[in-house]
Amino acid sequence: MELPLDHFRLIGVSPSATSEEILRAFQLRLDKTPDEGFTYEVLTQRSELLRLTADLLTDPESRREYENLLLNGSSGLDFSSNREVAGLILLWESGSSKEAFRITRKALQPPQTPALGSSREADLTLLAALTARDSAIQEQQLRSYSNAADFLQEGIQLLQRMGKLVERRKELEEDLVSLLPYRILDLLSRDLNDQESHKKGLSMLENLISKRGGLEGNNKSEYSDYLNQQEFEAFFQQIKPFLTVQEQIDLFLELQKRGSLEAGFLAFLSLTAIGFSRRKPEKLFEARRILKKLNLSGLDSMPLVGCLDLLLADIEQASARFSSSSDENLREWLNNYPGNKLEAICIFCKNWLENDVLVGYRDIDSKDVDLDSWFEDREIQEFIEKLEKKSIKTTIKSNLQNQQIKKESSTNITENFDDELANIDERRLPWPGGIKLGYENFDIQENNYNKAIFKNKPKEIYKYLIEKIAELNISFGEVLRGKEIISRSPYLIYLYAFLILFTFGIGIGFLRNNFKNSVNDDVVSDKSFMSLEKNQKVNEKDIIQEIKKNPSSKLNFIPEKSTSIISYDFKELNIPSPSLEEIRNLINGWLLSKSNYLAGKGEINISKIVSKGLIDRTIEERQNDIKKGIYKEINSQIRKIDLESQTSSRIVVLVELNYLERIIKSSGEFVNETSLTPLKVKYILGFSNKSWKLVDFVSGL
Fold first, then answer.
1. What range defines the domain where residue 556 resides?
2. Most exposed of 150, 343, 443, 645 (fewest Cβ within 10 Å)?
3. Across the chain, what does the average pLDDT equal?
C-alpha cells in the first residue's frame, strides 16, 4: 500500500533538519506512543518504521539518494501488508487525519475487510474512530460544520457496522449532537441558489426546535447538555437573518399551533414586517389578530396594536391604544411631548419598525422607515378605502335590521338615526393624499349631545337634526377638502351624501305635519339673522386696536365682516407663562388672518405666532380653492376658552367658537353655508425659539 507520506513527515521533521534534530525527533516519537488502545503488534511495527526512517535520514548517502527521488517527482511511501496499519497510524500522527480516515475506511470495506476478530480489524476500527473525530475537528476549525458532521456520521456508521467500540461510537454521537447548531448555521448561510442545502438546514432547525420543546425549551432532550436556553437564544438570533420573512412566518405559526407563546409573538413581528415592507396591509390585520390573542407575561401590547392602527389610518383608535398603555413612562412621554400627539405616535411607530420589526430577515432591507411613502402608496389607499366602505355598510345594515320604525315612538326614531350617524363617523376617513409627517392633519369629530333633553320637545328634535346635518357637512368637508378623494373614490362620497339626505328626509317627513309653524318661525328667524349680518359693518382699524388693547372683550362678538382685514404684523408671545387673555389674543390673530387669507384678501403673514406647518396647510387649502374657482368667507368668534394643560414647552386650551362658513364662487355666486354653534376646538401651543406658537388644533371634540 502506498501512503501520501514521506520520511520527513513520518518522523516529524522538516527537509532541512540536521541529523541531531532527526535523532531527537525519533526519540520523542518513540517515547510518545499512542495509548488509545492499539495492539502491541501494530505499535511494534510503528516503532520499527520510525527506526528505519531515522537510519535513512541520518545516513548522508541514503539521504542524498532519497532527496534526489523527491526532486524527480517521487511521492508517497510503499508499505508491506503487515505494516499498512502502522503506516496509517503514522499518517494520522503527521496531521493528515482526513487522508488516514479515507484509507482506513476503504481498508474496512469488502473485499479488503480483515478477518473477523483479528488484531488488524481491531486496530483499523479504532483508527477509523480516531481519524473521523480528528477530521471533524479540523473541519470545524475551518468553519465547515457540515463537512465535520459528515465525517462523524461516517465514523458512527462504520463502528455500527463493525459492532465494536461502543464507547467510542457514543463519543462521536455526542460530538454530532453538539455540532447540530453549527451545521444548521453552515447550511442556511450558504447562497440561496443552493436550495438543497437551504432546505436541509431549515428542516434540521425545525427538528431541533421541536425536540427542545419549542423556542422556550420545555422538553428535556439530548441537546439540553450542549445548548441551554441562553445559548439557544443567542444561536437563534444568529440564525434568524439567514431566513426569509416567509420562512419565519411559516415556522413561527407552526410552533404557535404547538403552544409556543414566544413563537406567536415572533409570528406577529414577521407578519408586520412583510405587511409593511411588501405593502400588504391585510397582513397587518393578521398580525393584530395574533397579538390580541397572546397572553405573554409582562408584554404591554397596547402601543404595538396602536402602531398597526396607525398604519391602517385609524388615528383615533391608535391614540386610544397608546393612552391605554400600562407603561407609565410611555404615557408621560406622550403627554409631555411638545408637538402634536399624532407626531409622537408616528415617531414611536417609526422607531419600532426600524429597530424591532424590519430586522433579522434575509430578504428585507432594514433601511430607514418612511411613513409618508406608506400612506401615499396607491394600493394602501385603495385598501383602506375598501375597508371604510365595508365598515360603513356593515354598520348601516346592522343598525337598520335592529330598527322597527313602525313600532317606535318619535323619540326612539330620532335616537336611532342619531346612533347611525355616530357610527358612520366612528372611524375617521383615510387621507387620500397620504399622511404628511408634518403632523398637521386633524380630525373633525362628531359633537356629543345629550339626547335626553329632546324627549317630548319636537322643535328641539328638528333643530337637532338640522345641526347634525350641518356638522356632518363641515366634518366631511374639512377632511376631504383639497385631497382629491372624489376622483379616487366617488362611491364613498355618494354614500355619505345619501346618508345625509336620508337622515334629513326622515326628519322632515316625520316632523312636517306636527311642527310646520315652528319650522316657519325658524326660517323667519334665520332670514332676520342673515339680514342683520349683511347690514353690519366693522371698522378694520378699530378691530386691530381692540386686539392690541383688550384681546378678550369685543373680539368675542366680531361679526362676519371682520374677515376683511388685509394684514397685521402680530407680535411674538414670548412670556414663559402666558395668561389665558394672551393666548386668546394669539388664537384670535390666527382666526382673523386665516379667514382673511381664505377669502382672497391679501397674504398670510403670521409666522411669529403660528408654526410653518399650519401656515403651509392654509396656503395649500387656498390653492385648492383657487383651482375649484371658489373662496371662503369665515367668521369665527371665541365664546369660551379654558386651559386644559400647561408645561414649560406645551400649552393645550379648549375653545368654543361660533363658526359660520360660506363658500362662494369667484363669480360671486353663493354655493353653500355651514354654521356650528358651538364648535369645540382644542388648540395646542408649543414653545420654541423663545416664543409661543400655535402648532396644531383638533376640531369637533
1. 536-699
2. 645
3. 77
Are 331 and 323 contacting, i.e. CB atoms less than 8 angstroms apart?
yes
- Shared domain for 507 and 563, answered yes or no, is no
Examine the domain organization and report whether 624 and 602 are in the same domain. Answer: yes
Same domain, 44 and 141: yes
| List of residues 6+ apart from 142 with CB closer than 8 A | none
Residue predicted with more confidence, 700 or 486: 700
- pLDDT value of position 289: 92
Query: For residue 526, how many other CB atoms are within 10 A of its CB?
Result: 11
Alpha-carbon distances of 661 from 335, 560, 636, 640, rounded to whole Å: 33, 9, 8, 19
Give the C-alpha separation, 651 to 692, whole Å.
9
Return the closest-CA partner of residue 255 out of 205, 187, 199, 181.
Answer: 205
Of 653, 650, 643, the C-alpha closest to 687 is: 650
- Tell me the average pLDDT across 116-127: 87
Q: What is the DSSP letter of 610?
A: B
User: What distance in Å separates the CA atoms of residue 464 and residue 363, rounded to the nearest whole number?
Assistant: 57
Which of 84-88, 277-281, 511-515 is predicted with the least confidence, judged by mean pLDDT? 511-515
Eight-state DSSP code of residue 602: S
> Among 388, 469, 392, which Cα is nearest to 432's?
388
Same-domain status, 435 and 571: no
DSSP states of 359-389 as a string?
Answer: -S-TT-------HHHHHH-HHHHHHHHHHHH
Has residue 289 been placed in a domain?
A: yes
Q: Per-residue pLDDT for 164 more than 90?
A: no
Find cell 365682516 and name the residue. Answer: 561
526 and 541 part of one domain: no
Strand ranges inside 498-540, DSSP E:
none
Our count of domains for the chain comes to 4
List residues bridging with 636 in a β-sheet.
659
